[in-house]
Amino acid sequence: MCGIVGSVSQRNIVPILVQGLQRLEYRGYDSCGVAVHSGGLKRARTTSRVAELQAQIDADAASGNAFTGFTGIAHTRWATHGAPVVHNAHPHFSAGPNAKEGAAGRVALVHNGIIENHDALRKQLQAKGYVFVSQTDTEVIAHLLDSLYDGDIFEALKATIAQLHGAYALAVFHKDEPHRVAGARAGSPLILGVGKEGGENFLASDAMALAGVTDQIVYLEEGDVVDLQIGKYWIADKNGKVLGADKRPVKTVQAHSGAAELGPYRHYMQKEIFEQPRAIADTLEGVVGISPELFGDGAYSTFKAIDNILILACGTSYISGSAAKYWFESIAKIPCNVEIASEYRYRDSVPNPRTLVVTISQSGETADTLAALKHAQSLGMAHTLTICNVATSAMVRECKHAYITRAGVEIGVASTKAFTTQLAGLFLLTLAIAQTKGLLSDEQETQYLNEMRHLPVALQAVLALEPQIIAWAEDFGKKENALFLGRGLHWPIAMEGALKLKEISYIHAEAYAAGELKHGPLALVTDEMPVVTVAPNDALLEKLKSNMQEVRARGGVLYVLADGDTQIESSEGLHVIRMPEHYGALSPILHVVPLQLLAYHTALAKGTDVDKPRNLAKSVTVE
User: Which pLDDT value is given to residue 586?
Assistant: First the structure.
């Protein structure tokens, strides 16, 4: 979601700040900006892309008014409070109480997160003479900090956050302290980067923002406040205690930005769809046998101790968990509940200390999922495990066990390879728990491992269906609504197909368990409502065929992804694409890929911004 970059340096830091924003563009944003100390405070902001921000900076330089500075902060904003317009874009300034319009700023601040008590603070600050020029909760923090400033930005920031309720990652500097930046985090990620030259130091919301600048990273923990100066930094914990280096050690982190090369592809989403064979192979690399220890030391004892599973996730990750529920209950014979993370923590639930709490997150920084995890832990559920694509993320640090998928950096907002690698990790977890409980024979283990190793080849065959899917997309590009149907293990795959279509093509799409069609959704079916059906050759096939007949009898048009031996043939109003092979329990990993391609090519037909769909963000770090 929102991105932060900040630095103190002895060189012009603007190119690094802008480059950092470019590397965070994949998260999604509505506006961006940068502020520097240049004899005073100076900033540039735009509701366009980072490239437009760079153009503003270049235009200043061309006019002889160079936009340079040794201290600065930068930000990409995904709008929460206030529309995506320039006066709501970060960085925000405070010029002090009773400041006249156009007065020079004293405080510059950027913020990720949401401040819940911003209305009350705004009224207090207005009573003191502070004038607000935005609708954001962030401007409240800037004015509050200005009101508390007494010559030391670090102390002022500590006093400021003591009055904030909500989530935040903050970076701030003051005109009177030209080589100093302070930061703080609670409920939103923030890291410290230790520079390699000239004593410079950095703040960022994501290590990727600092790729190529430094690989020396300190992960700030909940409640930390940090003080950056040239050649030195301090970190105080939530109790105000200044910490030694042993408490917040420097780690070498390789944050690759090389995935930004599109190569022969038109969009990152298309590239990432076609990277799935490699991503699955990398995720399974080194798996020579099924063992609980794939999930970390002590996993065997954890798996022996549990008698049910609770999956917490959001969005696409929630859907991967919904598919895994079928595996856990059919193969490992263990009850499994799947909860939307943003709902779980706000309802009364019945905790069970013998539960394995499984979180699923591409970024490992999803605010709702992290909060749900902490809520589960507070209820006494200590057995925790995450399936995550980022080894250095907060989710991995918070959980006792982890399986790191190796999808690589995913830039497209609509998740593709992260989803299929999550399914691969969840299937391994299913087998490991089944083995621990004595439910996986040597023959079954060998069979499942062989099928998993064959997945990259099978996926290549599915990707070869792209020309047929493009023909479908030409029809879908003219529609406003669509239904997706599946049964059993493939109902969640229908859900994922509907989600992808609405995310990037803006076509309204809903998914249903096919047996539910006659309980309401059938009323929507006309020849203008395409109905996509996932039809593997499994135990529910004949039931699914009956559901398809219900659609045809009402004049509906079916688009069916069918295994070759299903005996479903194309005819008027019935379009069939044959999958290369039936893949048993792992079939969802194959069947979702044509649905990804359908969404992608439909979006192309409609001319939408595929990689940066409106109103959405990649890493959702606000609640």
Answer: 95
Closest to 386 in 3D by CA, of 330, 448, 341: 341
DSSP β-bridge partners for residue 313: 340
Locus of tokens 């991105």: 3
Amino acid type, 519: H
Instruction: Determine the pLDDT at residue 542.
Output: 79
Q: What is the pLDDT of residue 260?
A: 57
- For residue 169, the SS3 value is strand
Among candidate residues 623, 505, 497, 503, the one with its CA nearest the CA of residue 1 = 623
- Give per-residue pLDDT as tens, 87-104: 999 999 999 998 887 788
300 contacts 292 by C-beta, under 8 angstroms: yes
Which tens digits make up the pLDDT trace of 160-174?
Answer: 999 999 889 999 999
Task: Say which residues have a Cβ less than 8 Å from residue 378's Cβ, sequence separation at least 6.
Answer: none
Residues 6+ apart with CB under 8 A from 548: 485, 514, 533, 535, 558, 560, 568, 574
Tens-digit pLDDT profile for residues 388-443 = 998 888 899 999 999 999 998 888 889 999 999 999 999 999 999 999 999 999 99
Listed residue (387, 390, 397) closest to 356, CA to CA: 387
Phi, psi of 172 (to 5 degrees): -150, 150
H-helix segments, 415-522: 417-436, 442-463, 466-476, 491-505
Concerning whether 618 is annotated as a catalytic residue, the answer is yes
> Which of the residues 2, 32, 388, 399 is marked catalytic?
2
Structure-token match 């998740």, residue found: 415
Question: 271, 325, 400, 618: which is the annotated catalytic residue?
Answer: 618
113/254 Cα distance (integer angstroms) = 26
The token pair at 447 is: 């069979």
Instruction: Determine contact, residues 514/544, Cβ cutoff 8 Å.
Output: yes
pLDDT tens for each residue of 379-393: 999 999 999 998 888
Mean pLDDT of the chain: 91
Query: How is residue 257 written in tokens?
Result: 């930005």
Helix, coil or strand: residue 544 = helix
For residue 361 the two structure tokens come to: 């997150």
Q: Give pLDDT tens digits for 478-499.
A: 999 999 999 899 999 999 999 9
* Angle at which helices 315-330 and 417-436 cross, to 10°: 30
Residue 258: what pLDDT?
46
Please determine, for residue 289, whether its predicted confidence score (pLDDT) is greater than 50.
yes
CB 448 within 8 A of CB 534: no
Round to whole Å and give the CA distance between 153 and 168: 17
Q: Which residues have a Cβ under 8 Å from the Cβ of 141 and sit 6 or more positions away?
A: 92, 109, 111, 115, 160, 164, 168, 170
Is the separation of the CB atoms in 27 and 208 below 8 Å?
no
Residue carrying the six token digits 């859907």: 319
Helix (H, G, I), strand (E, B) or coil at 360: strand
